Amino acid sequence: MKTRRQKKIQELIANETVRTQEELAQKLLENGFPVTQATISRDIKEMGLVKVPGQGDEYRYAVRSELHPVSYQERLKRMCRESVVSYDDSENIIVVKTIPGNAQALASLLDSAGWREVIGTVAGDDTIFLLVKSKDKVKTILLRISEML
Asked: What is the domain range of residue 75?
C-alpha cells in the first residue's frame, strides 16, 4: 500500500499543483488513499519532496530532481551517450543494451525522468526493459532515446 500511495503522490505532484500537506491528503483521499497527516509527513520525508516556488508567492511540492531539471536532463543525456550500446522494441517493451555495469544507473535516471508514457524499468547488469503504457507511445520514447544519443 505504501509503494502505491507514494507512486500516486509522485503522480499527483507531477501533474497538479499541490501546495500543502492538507491538499495532498485531500487529493489522495479522492484517489482512494485515506491517510493521516503523520503518514503524509513521513512520505514527504522518505520521498525527498521539497517545496519549490510556484506562481506568485506560492510554493508547491516537487520531487528533488525538479530543482535542477537542466542539469538532470544533461546527466541523463550524458549517461545515454556514454553507456547505451543499442536499443530495440517489441510490442510495448523497449530493450536498452548498455555497456556492462551501467544498466541500473541509467534505469534509475530513466525512472526519474518523469516520462508519463513509461510505467517503469527493470534493469540487470547491461540490459534495461522499459515498460511503455501503450504500443502507440513506443515510437515517442524511441525518438527521445535516439535524440539523447
From this structure: 69-148
